[in-house]
Amino acid sequence: MKTRDKILHTALNLFNTHGVPNVTLRRIAAEMFISQGNLNYHFKHREDIIEALFFQLMETFEEEKAKLDTEKMDFQFVLDSTRNGMEALFKFRFLMIDFNQNMRENPKLHEHFKQLEEVRRTTYLYSFDLAIKAGIMRAPAFEGEYNGLNERIRVFSDYWIASAEVYGEPVESTVDKYHNLLVEMFFPYFTKDSQREFLLKRL
């Protein structure tokens, strides 16, 4: 692993464990047993590391979006795709644990996050359209119904990790719990066949 990648890996672990405000460049360098000068050769500011990690998250979401055009849309795909997105967010959970503070204190990150939200928004709306055509989700009952669902998903996605942190939920089961809650949010929008499949998977 190259030094730059090691820095990002170490910083990610420290940010997730201790929070961004408690992790300095000096601490990252000490954790790696390298000089701060060596670290500064790759990243001059902590915000540069955060930005690089954010782009890794962004890349993951772009990859998931691309799968919509290459893989078969079925009920299992819906489960896998939504879980992959949540696992990606959880991997970079330091961004979400102090979501409001991170957005307020880092304007560049805030702008990047708006771009990520646009990727998430278009991905979900496109996936809803494909799922309706595949008979997994029902047709909208009124104009804009799925836009409303997308907004609720956005709010849920932005704050489920912070909620888990506040209530001290076990790290190893966090994604499972909140993924189930997300899929349950879809239940009223599933066709009867998909609802039956969902209930069978819960047994």
TrEMBL record:
It comes from the Bacteria. InterPro entries: Homeodomain-like_sf, HTH-type_Tx_Regulator, HTH_TetR, TetR. Residues 1-61 form the HTH tetR-type domain. Signal peptide: none annotated. SUPFAM superfamilies: Homeodomain-like. The keyword Cell membrane does not apply. GO terms for molecular function: DNA binding. Residues 24-43 bind DNA. Keywords: DNA-binding. Gene3D superfamilies: Tetracycline Repressor, domain 2 (1.10.357.10). This is Regulatory protein TetR.
